[in-house]
Design a protein that fits this description.
CATH topology of the largest domain: Uracil-DNA Glycosylase, subunit E
CATH superfamily of the largest domain: Uracil-DNA glycosylase-like domain
Order of helices and strands: EHEHHEEHHEHEHHEEHH
Radius of gyration: 23 Å
Distance between the termini: 64 Å
Number of domains: 2
Shape: globular
Helix content: 25-40%
Oligomer: single chain
CATH architecture of the largest domain: 3-Layer(aba) Sandwich
């Protein structure tokens, strides 16, 4: 490089986790007199504990994932996420599937064993029951969009913990933003309470039209719960009939 002042260009290596933008500017100003007014900055990203347990968590999801404009692009940008411990135990990342312009978005809790193996949501026994429920209200699976609160299977199908939900919830909010459903069907209390940021009992909220931001939300029992408690099927049938009516009126 030509340098009329005889001063050598500086190369600075900074750890972004330890230096804010103001500190960086001050450092560059101090070095300006030692250079030809051109400072080359090589950055070293440092994974912080807030990003999760994986040592390379900051590198697994690009920072521009929030600017994804389509569902496939969002999936591509977040599918390697290791921001919580579930990233190291999963077999497949279960993003979601269905009609990307659906009027109805179905949201469950988390992938199970069969979903973890296939990479698709709701493909096990609970998924088969969900398909039958949707068919019964003339809303076939391929016409809706299906996703979960979290994208990776918790070991032994346990309920996801607060850290796991906190890491994955922003991805779901972005999915909802891109799909733009008229109505959300929330399956089970984990889905309902995560979306509404409250603690409800299913008996207190089902049978009502709730609101998630500017989108209508209907809560009902998770299909897995229906397999264990068949007596809840009548209430679920009432809920999905209401879903169909609300969707038609929206």
């Amino acid at each position: 490089m030509n340098n009329s002042t005889g001063k050598l260009p500086a190369v600075i290596q900074v750890k972004l986790a330890n230096m804010n933008s103001q500190s960086l500017v001050q450092a560059l100003e101090q070095l300006r007199d030692l250079t030809d007014n051109t400072v080359y900055v090589r950055t070293e990203e440092v994974a912080q504990s807030s990003l999760g347990t994986h040592p390379d968590a900051s590198l697994d999801v690009p920072s521009d994932w929030t600017r994804a404009r389509t569902i496939p692009t969002l999936n591509e940008r977040i599918c390697n996420c290791m921001n919580c411990g579930l990233g190291s135990t999963r077999t497949r990342f279960v993003f979601g599937s269905g009609n990307e312009n659906a009027d109805v978005m179905v949201i469950g809790e988390a992938p199970g064993a069969e979903e973890d193996a296939s990479g698709e949501p709701f493909v096990g026994r609970a998924g088969q029951l969900l398909n039958k429920i949707l068919d019964a209200i003339e809303m076939p699976r391929e016409t809706v969009y299906v996703a979960n609160i979290i994208k990776c299977r918790p070991p032994d199908n346990r309920r996801p913990n607060k850290e796991e939900v906190a890491q994955c919830e922003p991805y779901l909010h972005k999915q909802i933003e891109l799909v733009k459903p008229k109505v959300i069907l929330a399956l089970g209390l984990t889905a309902v309470n995560t979306l509404l940021r409250t603690n409800h009992k299913m008996g207190d909220i089902r049978g009502k039209v709730l609101q998630y931001q500017n989108t209508k939300l209907i809560a009902t029992y998770h299909p897995a719960a229906l397999l264990r408690n068949p007596e809840w099927k009548r209430a679920t049938w009432e809920d999905v009939q209401m879903l169909k009516k609300v969707c038609e009126e929206s």
